[in-house]
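Figure 3 (text version): structure tokens given as input.
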């Protein structure tokens, strides 16, 4: 309860030295610091995925397992991740247990509902210091910051195109196939 109440206090004891981010939550603070990290030292042994987050690499390596322990009885979905499986099962449910009081949005997933509620907030928690971009979603903010990063992590092997988004370089490579 003490930890939860700290989230609502106005003074934020943990302050980022590289931007104006501040919080009382140690876990959120550690996650935020990864935004500024330049070296990604945890590599997947099966593909080119790299990260500097231990939880992310543990979750990622599960996708390479051949046998999937959790199999949906209503479709061909299979996974080894329990939380993903629970979320998937909710997609088969026709009634929505959680409904927004501000609009007609409904879902059965608490995390999706929390994310949706942020769309009704009058101000944005994450503001870019280099442009006018602002959002309430930390994951969107992290992706946006990659746009301003000078060094590019993904490079085309056939020309000098470079980007910080893997999907963009994959899409770009298709332009070389004629």
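Below: residues designed for each position.
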């Amino acid at each position: 309860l003490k930890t939860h109440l700290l989230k609502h206090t106005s003074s934020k004891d943990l302050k980022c030295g590289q931007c104006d981010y501040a919080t009382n939550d140690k876990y959120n603070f550690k996650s935020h610091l990864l935004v500024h990290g330049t070296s990604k030292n945890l590599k997947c042994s099966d593909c080119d995925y790299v990260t500097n987050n231990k939880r992310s690499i543990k979750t990622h390596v599960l996708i390479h397992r051949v046998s999937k322990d959790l199999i949906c009885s209503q479709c061909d979905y299979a996974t080894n991740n329990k939380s993903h499986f629970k979320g998937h099962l909710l997609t088969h449910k026709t009634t929505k247990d959680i409904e927004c009081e501000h609009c007609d949005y409904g879902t059965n997933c608490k995390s999706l509902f929390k994310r949706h509620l942020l769309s009704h907030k009058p101000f944005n928690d994450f503001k870019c210091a280099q442009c006018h971009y602002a959002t309430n979603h930390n994951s969107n903010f992290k992706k946006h910051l990659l746009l301003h990063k000078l060094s590019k992590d993904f490079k085309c092997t056939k020309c000098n195109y470079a980007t910080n988004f893997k999907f963009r370089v994959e899409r770009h490579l298709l332009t070389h196939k004629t």
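The CA atoms of residues 3 and 156 lie 46 Å apart.
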